[in-house]
Amino acid sequence: MASQNKRIAKELAECTSSPPPGITVTLPNDSDLHKWHVTLDGPENSVYAGGRFGLVVSLPADYPFRAPTVTFATRIYHPNVTNDQLGNICLGPLKAENWKPSTRLAGVLEAVRALLAEPQPDDPLEARIADEFRAERQEFDKNARSYVQRYAKGPVKFDVAAVGAAAAGEGGEDKKGAGGAATAAGASRSGGNTASGP
Amino acid sequence: MDTDDDFMSNVSSEDDMLPDDSDNDLSGDEDFGFDDEPDAYIDSQKEIGHKKKAAYDITFKVYQPSDVLKQQTELIDEVNMILDISKEEAAILLRYFRWNKERLIEDYMDRPSQVLDAAGLAQTSAGPPKMQVIPGFVCDICCEDEPGLESFALKCGHRYCVDCYRHYLSQKISREGEAARIQCPSEGCNIIIDARSLDLLVTAELTERYHELLHRTYVEDKETLKWCPAPDCQNAVECAVKKKDLDKVVPTVSCICGHRFCFGCILNDHQPAPCELVKKWLKKCADDSETANWISANTKECPKCNSTIEKNGGCNHMTCRKCKHEFCWMCMGLWSEHGTSWYNCNRFEEKSGTDARDAQAKSRVSLERYLHYYNRYANHEQSARLDKDIYHKTEKKMVQLQKESGMSWIEVQYLNSASQALQTCRQTLMWTYAFAFYLARNNLTEIFEDNQKDLEMAVEALSEMFEKPIAELADSDLKVDIINKTSYCNKRRVILLDDTAQKLSEGLWTFNTELTSLGANGGSSARR
Ligand SMILES: [Zn+2]
Ligand SMILES: [Zn+2]
Ligand SMILES: [Zn+2]
Ligand SMILES: [Zn+2]
Ligand SMILES: [Zn+2]
Ligand SMILES: [Zn+2]
């Protein structure tokens, strides 16, 4: 619908002309306004500082009446992001029951960045990482920094996150938690994803 | 609430739906001294006191959609009068307070502005909702700014174009099934859209769906009300049994549509087993389905001549066509022994402890024990289904019977009663085996097993008569036998349910599992 594109075009223009701090928005395909690539700079004074994180934003056909999906394309060690290649995020405003059509993507992206500065362990997607964040902060910091070194340096890639990520990412948390990421053996963990399919 | 229900709703007890044997009770089986079929109005009986209310009997009320609507309207009108607020506001407040009128009035009297705020009703005195064209308006959702754009705002003043408002509302109503708590589309604004604003904005079709959803929240918000789960049934049932009571009572209710269900868990009637046991049992059966699959097979071999025997009725008394050997489908034992007092087809005999020393033997015994009960549970479930098939054939039979014997429709109703008794009793029997599986032995279990066995024997006997060819059914002696046996089956069922319910309410049963579901992930032991 043309009127919805008007809204998206306006938001895109705002995000590119005066982007929120630490956030860069690009369109991977100029003819598709519904797919955004976002680069997020890890907030200063956080364990993610110095890292650059790729986010893929997909706007549904009836945006803004339904919430966009936002996923991390870059692996990140965080209580509210699934510790896998899907990179699903648990963020209040993006939940269907909370989403309001007046919500702006710039605000959503800022909320994601704020989540890096201040993880919410009480509403986790990765229970084990949340526990670690609360009880063994030093260990958490070490793991998060090691993920940054491993995945969030150099040019940002957006093609990692699988299509249909949102559907497959739910319900597999405990398995992944048990698999453990303490050794940061990221490459060998892809098996965990296939096991938790729909 | 009980002013208008004389004919609209149905004060009832679960026995209403039992085949009524009061007028075909020719049996003379009066040795039970038990008034087994309480009439519909149990409450008044209780007050009179000379008639005993069965322990498993639950008081409940059935409401038709018009009753439910009327109740809501009355509550809304009442709050509208007492608090001097509009009906829309009264409705929103009542929904916010989950229809607890007393608490709403009390809280509102104390601190009206906080209550209005919390329920999403801003305190401004705007007129009736209307669409407006405002010069220079830009819709914040679609970013349209063309002149003459119609817009709408709730009391909060967050204004959007009418198209966006409509799209938003139809999304909420048809896609998310939301009605009572649809907020203003503005981020962070908790103002709730009222019915009048909605009626103004959306299509008639959507308005209908919206009111239907609103209507549903009335029942869904109240712990004492539940929808009848039967497909296409619009009735609601009111019952005072609370979640915390479910370890003491199995609240079976029956809707006027004929569906009997548990008010606690909405599953089909599962007396005498308490809800929590049913939940655990069904989970266990699902987990162990592969192990137990062979049981549900419809064919077995004759234990004597090994020829294949197919089960095509509910009756467990099998006679081999070839060698005429008579045996029990469930335990494959001699049928002739089933009538004797020492034979127990229903009880699982624990092997003496000595040969179950090592873990492997123990797990084998526990599997055997499970299979014993599952076998019988599944068999009654299957038989109930087969009996139901027979019931459909029964209707045909009855027509034939009328032709052949010259009996009237009324005179052949005993077959209908028999068929219903078979299904009801088998459903009870089925759940007695799940009950027994979790029952820890004490001095009371034997009475239970005796009741179970008596009911089972009676049901099998009736089932056998029921499957006789039409020619024999026309025989007047058999008719009397069937009538008597039907009545006897119903009595045995009542006795069993009364005994189990009584002891459950007194906490006399001990179970080898927890009856409370506080620890939601407690029952994981069933997994390998
Ligand atoms: Zn608009
Ligand atoms: Zn508002
Ligand atoms: Zn019903
Ligand atoms: Zn139940
Ligand atoms: Zn045989
Ligand atoms: Zn047997």
TrEMBL record, chain A:
Protein EC: 2.3.2.23
Name used for this protein in its record: E2 ubiquitin-conjugating enzyme
Alphabetical list of InterPro entries matching this protein: Ub_conjugating_enzyme, UBC, UBQ-conjugating_enzyme/RWD
Composition bias, Low complexity: 181-198
Disordered: region residues: 168-198
Pfam families in alphabetical order: UQ_con
Record keywords: ATP-binding, Nucleotide-binding, Transferase, Ubl conjugation pathway
Residue ranges occupied by any UBC core domain in the UniProt entry: 3-153
Keyword Iron: no
UniProt GO molecular function: ATP binding; ubiquitin conjugating enzyme activity
Domain of life: Eukaryota
Automatic annotation (TrEMBL), chain B:
Domain RING-type: 135-349, 139-185
Pfam families: Ariadne, IBR, IBR_1, UBA_ARI1, zf-C3HC4
Top-level taxon: Eukaryota
Catalyzed chemical reaction(s): [E2 ubiquitin-conjugating enzyme]-S-ubiquitinyl-L-cysteine + [acceptor protein]-L-lysine = [E2 ubiquitin-conjugating enzyme]-L-cysteine + [acceptor protein]-N(6)-ubiquitinyl-L-lysine
Region (Disordered) residue spans: 1-38
MF (Gene Ontology): ubiquitin protein ligase activity; zinc ion binding
Alphabetical UniProt keywords: Metal-binding, Repeat, Transferase, Ubl conjugation pathway, Zinc, Zinc-finger
GO BP terms: protein ubiquitination
EC number: 2.3.2.31
PROSITE patterns with a match to the protein in the record: TRIAD, ZF_RING_1, ZF_RING_2
Family annotation (PANTHER family): RBR FAMILY RING FINGER AND IBR DOMAIN-CONTAINING
Designated name of the protein: RBR-type E3 ubiquitin transferase
Species assigned in the record: Parachaetomium inaequale
